[in-house]
């Protein structure tokens, strides 16, 4: 029987870091007193935390949500329930769960609202569990809620080899849509091909406008854009009449200025997709969405791609790899996993 410690370790951040690369001194591993759940909360012993691009932004104070004091980055995780607060009925100590928080997952413990946790189904491991919510949640919300995706649609995905890009690719193919995947390197496009992309475009080698005219003369029904920058206007000009342009983020670092005559002439709509806000504002619809994603996972239609693992103390290296897209060159994905490789008192791995 496991004896819980009275303290836990977590990455410490103050949200005012300069642009990466980060150092270990800027994101140190510190020890804190163990957490006690408040009413409606659950304390989870974190096994795996996923690393996402917003983690890089929040460490610099550039994300939409800004913690006011010392915090740990990390939005999504998997682990086991340690303790539960009042009014928590559906979970108990020892349950395997996946969950999300505004921040705080780069830690051995995290306290989270009961509404932001779901039991892991049988057959799912901690790595996959930690990797599903943000990338697949964002992409499912974008494609189904805003994009109203249909099997007859053509979907253009910018940055398709990235975390949310790969998730969007798999979800679009699961719906039966045609997927045009774009990326900056042929090696990245090979991963997209392996995940089912119908058309591949290297926008560093090929002119995106010309390539789209060849493969989709009428344009795309849906454009999925987590990149921003110079590609946005070209992609928007290649949307069909009544098409949907989904704004996911700005991984390029540049927020583009869009000529509003383009959506006017094309009769298309531009949708901002902020899954984190949706998750907080509409918890019932979120649960329905998560259920759908789990069904797709168990059916073998979606599978997170884990490119690298880091021990908790090396969180800064994981963020640097993501910010510089270095891991992508080695393992063909920017969807990284941060592992908490604690040693139990029995001198055995906790997982």
UniProtKB/TrEMBL annotation:
Residues 23-331 form the Enoyl reductase (ER) domain. Coiled coil: none annotated. It comes from the Eukaryota. InterPro entries: ADH-like_C, ADH-like_N, ER, GroES-like_sf, NAD(P)-bd_dom_sf, Zn-ADH-like_protein. GO terms for molecular function: oxidoreductase activity. Pfam families: ADH_N (PF08240), ADH_zinc_N (PF00107). PANTHER family: QUINONE OXIDOREDUCTASE-LIKE PROTEIN 2 (PTHR43677:SF4), SHORT-CHAIN DEHYDROGENASE/REDUCTASE (PTHR43677). This is Enoyl reductase (ER) domain-containing protein. It comes from Guillardia theta (strain CCMP2712).
């Amino acid at each position: 029987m496991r004896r819980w410690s009275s303290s836990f370790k977590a990455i410490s951040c103050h949200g005012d870091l300069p642009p990466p690369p980060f150092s270990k001194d800027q994101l140190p591993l510190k020890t804190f007193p163990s957490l006690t759940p408040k009413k409606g909360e659950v304390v989870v012993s974190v096994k795996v935390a996923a690393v996402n691009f917003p983690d890089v932004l929040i460490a610099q104070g550039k994300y939409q949500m800004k913690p006011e004091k010392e915090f740990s980055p990390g939005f999504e995780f998997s682990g086991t329930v340690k303790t539960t607060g009042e009014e928590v009925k559906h979970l108990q100590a020892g349950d395997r769960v996946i969950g999300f928080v505004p921040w705080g997952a780069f830690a051995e413990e995290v306290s989270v609202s009961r509404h932001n946790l779901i039991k892991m189904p049988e057959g799912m491991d901690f790595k996959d569990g930690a990797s599903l919510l943000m990338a697949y949640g964002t992409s499912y919300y974008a494609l189904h809620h805003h994009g109203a995706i249909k099997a007859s649609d053509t979907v253009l995905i910018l940055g398709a080899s990235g975390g949310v890009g790969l998730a969007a690719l798999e979800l679009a193919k699961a719906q039966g849509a045609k997927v045009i995947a774009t990326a900056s390197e042929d090696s990245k496009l090979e991963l997209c091909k392996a995940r089912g992309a119908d058309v591949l475009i290297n926008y560093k080698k090929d002119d995106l406008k010309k390539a789209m005219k060849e493969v989709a003369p009428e344009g795309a029904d849906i454009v999925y854009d987590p990149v921003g920058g110079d590609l946005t206007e070209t992609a928007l000009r290649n949307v069909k009449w009544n098409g949907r342009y989904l704004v996911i983020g700005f991984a390029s670092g540049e927020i583009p200025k869009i000529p509003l005559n383009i959506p006017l002439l094309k009769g298309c709509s531009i949708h901002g997709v902020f899954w984190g806000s949706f998750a907080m504002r509409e918890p019932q619809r979120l649960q329905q969405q998560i259920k759908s994603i789990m069904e797709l996972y168990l059916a073998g239609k979606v599978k997170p791609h884990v490119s690298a693992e880091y021990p908790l103390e090396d969180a800064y290296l994981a963020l640097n790899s993501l910010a510089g897209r270095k891991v992508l060159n080695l393992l063909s994905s920017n969807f990284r996993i941060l592992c908490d490789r604690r040693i139990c008192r029995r001198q055995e791995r906790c997982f």
